[in-house]
Write a structure and sequence with these properties.
The chain is mainly alpha-helical. It has three helices and no strands.
């Protein structure tokens, strides 16, 4: 479980640093990206935060 947590924080940080410039209003800080990751992975997503670039959607 600890490894999963480290992987989650690392991937959220990478997503923040790669997508913050394209969408600063949707990805303002790393905890917001963590929220997006949790909602996207655990449910169908609320739709409040979503990536707009094609490589992010992939």
């Amino acid at each position: 479980m600890f490894i999963d947590l480290i992987l989650f924080v690392t991937s959220a940080s990478l997503m923040y640093f790669t997508k913050h410039q394209a969408q600063p209003e949707n990805f303002p800080h790393i905890p917001a990206v963590m929220w997006w990751g949790i909602i996207t992975l655990k449910t169908v997503g609320y739709g409040d935060i979503y990536p707009i670039t094609s490589n992010s959607r992939f």
